[in-house]
Structures are given as C-alpha cells and as structure tokens.
Design brief:
alpha+beta, six-stranded mixed β-sheet, 16 helices, globular
C-alpha cells in the first residue's frame, strides 16, 4: 500500500512538472560574459616580445614561439624549404645533443617540443612540467640558436617529402583541394605546392640561410603560460635566450592575391566511381570588417553542418551527397570562399546544379532571421569557449599582435558578432558571393558523369603528372 501511494505521489509530481516545464526552444538566457584575463606583456633586451599568463592550477608550463615567415615566403623553385627547415630544427639535433640525445632527454621527462611551418608564420612550442622547465628551456634555446641540422635527418626529411609528393594523387579529396588552391591563387605564393624538383634543390646551405633569416629574437613573439612567477620566467629567459643575437633583418611583405584565373571547370581525372567537387573563388582578408557578417552568413549557408542550407537540401532532402558544405577562409593576403561536395559520379551534375542554385538564391535573396539567429548563437557560444584556458588566451593575444591587431581585438570581435544584423548578412551575400567568378574543380571519371562537364563552362583538364 505504501509503495502504491508513493507511485501516485511521484506520478503527480511528474505530471505537474511536465505541465509547467518550459519548452527548451523557448528558454532564454542572459548573454554570456567574456572577461578574459589580461596577460602580462614585455620585451626583452634582444627584441623578443613576450606574453605571459600565470596559472598555478597544474604544474605545467606551455611555450609557443611565433616567427614571421612560413611556406608562402619560399621562392617557388625551392618550395618546401620552410617546412623542411622547421622539421629539421626539431629532429636534427641541437647544442651538444645529437638527434637521438634530444629525443631521449625529452622522452625521459615527458616533455614535448614541436616545430611547424604554416603559410604565414613559423611556430615552435614546448610543453613541460614545472620541475623540468630548465631542461625544456635549454633544449628549446638550443634548437632556436644552435641547431645541429644533422645531414642524415635532412636527407630523411627530403625523402619523406618526396614520397608524399609521389603519393599526392592517391586521395581524390587531396587532389581537389590542391587544384582549387593552385587555380584561384594562380601566380601567388598561396597557390604554390612543393614538387620533387623543388625539394630536390634543398640542401644544408639553404636550410641554414632559412634559419638565419627568420629564426631571430627580433622576429619573435613568445606566448608563455603556466606554473611560473614573473620573476622565474624572466630568469629563465635571461639565462637561455639573453645572449641570442638580433637578426636585424626585415622580413619582406608579400603581395596580396588577385584574381588571375579564368572562371570555368577544372577537371582532374581519377578512375573512381565518385565525384569530388569544390567550387569557389577568392574572398576577403582577415582584417576586412565584413568578415563577421560573412562568417554568420557562411554558417547558415554551409558551414553549420546539419543546420545549414547546403546540408539540409543537398544531403538530407535530395540525398545527393556523402558530405557537403561551405567554408570561408580569411587569410592575411586574401582568403577564399568555397563549397564542397562528395557524391556519386552519376549524380555529379545534379549536386553541382543544386549547390549553385542555393548559392545563387542566397546571393539574390539572402538568408532568413531564424537562420541568422541560429548561426550567431552557435558562433558566439563557441567563440567564448575558444579562450577557456590560460594557454589558449595567451596564445591568442600573441597571435593578435603578430597579425597586427590591437590588444582588445578579442572583445571587439565578440561585439562585432553580437552586432551582426540580417541586413548585414544579406548585404555581404550580395557583395561577396559571385557565381560569375567561380572555379569549379571536379575530380573523377568523366565517363561515369551524368552530364558532360562542359555544360558548366569551358573545361581545363589538369595534368596529374608528378614533377
């Protein structure tokens, strides 16, 4: 009897709750507050700009060193030099330690150091426990100031890069991506990819020249966070980087990308039963004030996954695509906008026509309020959580200065996203989406396509020869 009474009571409570519960879609919350901690900033005597955020939650220290340079700064005949140099700095030994001794020293205490060359900058990072900070700073300083550049490691890295180039036509998505950038950035460093020939020209002398030119304290911004006091950090920097001589070299400014390609179809033959598609054109740079409205627009168009028009109509409703979407890439020297799709060869033209139709309608008529609200909320919510840790925050501040933004840019960005209106989205759709300038890249077997490619414009067949 008691159990029966209890069941009645529970049922009554549940009925009351369900009757008064608010629909989750109707719930409203106060705006998220974004009050990130302010890192300390100072400049060393030899010109290193340092951002530091003290954080004693864990006995961990992170270091990220940024240098102006990158693969876009390579001369085309030695494309790949920046990437190979960055790799060999880490793998080629440093100071009095040969390559194996560097690896052993780091592995013994669980430290990690990595080095990478991206398009627009070079970066090394260190992650260490506080108790091993001296060792980590010592090895990082040796890598930057006294790299051994072991010739066997150079030969191995060149061989690895050339093997990757020989395999570059194995994966159709990689072909489509490469041809797109080679096309829309024709004549610009963003469109240059390493070749067997360019990698073959790279040698110890050129790697040393690359190191001397770019890896200097007066071309460096370092972001440091973790279990250190300001006094401890200054002591480590003085001990390990204080004697690092200035480079006194000015890294050249690169030209902005301009449209030099002919709109049309660029076909990459590949004997597969699918069609890999990418279509788009040049976009805007990373300082264009319209970038916020464009990002909201792109989220609604194709960047928002299953909430976007492209996925909803091309994949979910029409069933024409394994994957479909759009991407807005804002870069310092002019970015790009593109839509992408992977579909069956026999539905190639249907998918392309539907994508072009959706982009054309958004350009002409814009998006609706619900789409904009969904996009704004998603972007703003994820934006705040991109800076949830001390490491994320200090790295972001260093990268902002590196890219020429003011110190308060993060808050400005959030306010700009919050201020985007439907009118803004539809204005930038009309202004920046340009179907007349589209380069359409298709990878596949044209014998299986449902319609000839020339129904979309003049066709240029792209050679798959590996040089």
């Amino acid at each position: 009897m008691k159990r029966l009474i209890l069941l009645y009571l529970v049922s009554a409570v549940l009925l009351t709750v369900s009757a008064t519960a608010e629909n989750p879609r109707d719930m409203r919350f106060p705006p998220l507050k974004f009050e990130p901690p302010e890192p300390a900033r100072f400049v060393t005597d030899n010109g290193i700009i340092v951002y530091f955020l003290e954080d004693h939650q864990l006995p961990v220290i992170t270091v990220a060193a940024l240098f102006k340079g990158g693969s876009a700064y390579d001369l085309s005949d030695i494309s790949g030099l920046a990437e190979i140099t960055a790799t060999v700095l880490r793998t080629g030994g440093a100071g009095k330690r040969n390559p194996e001794e560097v690896d052993a020293a780091l592995d013994f205490v669980g430290e990690s150091i990595s080095s990478v060359a991206l398009n627009d900058y070079l970066m090394l990072d260190l992650r260490t426990l506080k108790k091993d900070a001296e060792l980590g700073f010592e090895i990082l300083a040796d890598i930057l100031q006294r790299p051994m550049m072991d010739t066997a490691k150079i030969a191995l890295e060149k061989s690895n890069r050339q093997d990757a180039i020989r395999r570059q036509n194995d994966e159709p998505g990689g072909i489509t991506r490469r041809v797109f950038y080679q096309t829309v950035y024709s004549g610009h460093p963003y469109g240059v990819f390493p070749t067997l020939e360019s990698v073959g020209k790279i040698n110890l002398e050129k790697i040393r020249e690359q190191h001397k030119k770019y890896y200097n304290p007066d071309n460096c911004i370092i972001a440091i966070s973790g279990d250190l006091s300001a006094e401890e950090l200054r002591a480590l920097l003085s001990k390990y980087f204080g004697q690092w001589p200035r480079g006194n070299m000015t890294v050249p400014e690169l030209p902005r990308a301009t449209m030099t390609y002919k709109p049309g179809v660029y076909f990459a033959p590949k004997d597969i039963n699918q069609a890999h598609i990418r279509l788009g054109h040049l976009g805007i740079d990373n300082k264009n004030p319209d970038r916020f409205a464009l990002e909201v627009l792109n989220f609604a168009l194709g960047g928002g996954g299953f909430t976007s028009r492209l996925t909803g109509q091309v994949r979910t409703t029409a069933g024409l695509a394994y994957s479909v979407g759009s991407y807005l890439l804002n870069r310092p020297l002019v970015g790009s906008f593109f839509a992408y799709c992977q579909t069956k060869a026999e539905s190639m033209s249907q998918a392309i026509n539907m994508i072009l139709d959706i982009i054309g309608k958004v350009k002409d008529s814009g998006i609706i309020m619900d789409e904009m609200n969904m996009a704004k909320e998603s972007i703003i919510n994820s934006y705040i959580f991109n800076y949830a840790t001390s490491e994320q925050m200090v790295n972001a501040r260093a990268l902002l200065e590196f890219s020429g933004f003011p110190p308060d840019q993060l808050k400005r960005d959030l306010e700009a996203y919050q201020g985007v209106t439907l009118q803004d989205c539809n204005r930038v759709a009309s202004l920046y989406l340009d179907t007349a300038k589209i380069a359409l890249i298709v990878t596949g077997n044209k014998a299986l396509f449902d319609k000839p490619l020339d129904s979309f414009g003049a066709v240029t067949e792209v050679s798959s020869e590996i040089k």
